[in-house]
Write a structure and sequence with these properties.
This protein has 217 residues and is α+β, with helices and mostly antiparallel strands. It contains eight helices and four strands, in the order E-H-E-H-E-E-H-H-H-H-H-H. Strands 2-1-3-4 form a four-stranded mixed sheet, covered by helices on one side. Helix 1 runs antiparallel to helix 6, helix 1 crosses helix 8 and helix 4 packs antiparallel against helix 5. The relative contact order is 0.13. The model has no long low-confidence stretch (mean pLDDT 95).
Length: 217
Amino acid sequence: MSTLKIYGTVKSRTARTLWMAEELGIPYELVAVDYRARETRTPAFLAINPNGHVPAVDDGGLRLHESMAINLYLARRHAGSPLAPHGLAEEGLCLSWSFWAVTELESPALTVLVHGQALPPEQRDPQKLARATGALRPPLSVLEGELAGQAGGGGESRPYLLGDRFTVADLNIASVLAWVRTAPGLLEEFPSVSSWLALCLGREAYRRIEAMRRAAG
């Protein structure tokens, strides 16, 4: 099997794809591309991803961008993994939940991260933080209902979105919600989501990504 090249930095959405590679246990090479130093705008990188964003991957000559799509591809590429969808119905669910994470969660979650933690305190905007936190409550209510077995007319609670198995759907959503862990009191409003997120972020593969992030400074 060829070594997957992952372009980016662990302090970006690239962490999402690194987590996936670690879960799959596949050989990969992290090719450092620092967007803050505008390395994503060089001709060499634009030849890999003309959008000028990370992550991007090269899998034996196949070049892909968009982290959610990359992860869904890797799940199918390594279909023997428990993370991969088993059958068409699960594939539809993994696609649906991954797109949902992008459309419903990612923008307000990023604002919470930036104005609640990432920026220096004097540059944070409390109003933007409050609006983004409020915008997260409706989708988090949807996820809470799903995990608690309340969606679609009722049912039993389950540890992961598709049942008893951690899949690419869980990974893709958890990689976004990891950004809001420091939002005061938010996740406590959604106990099933909170328990599910702790389970996802407690996995060995994710802890290795966290160690990489700490080592990067």
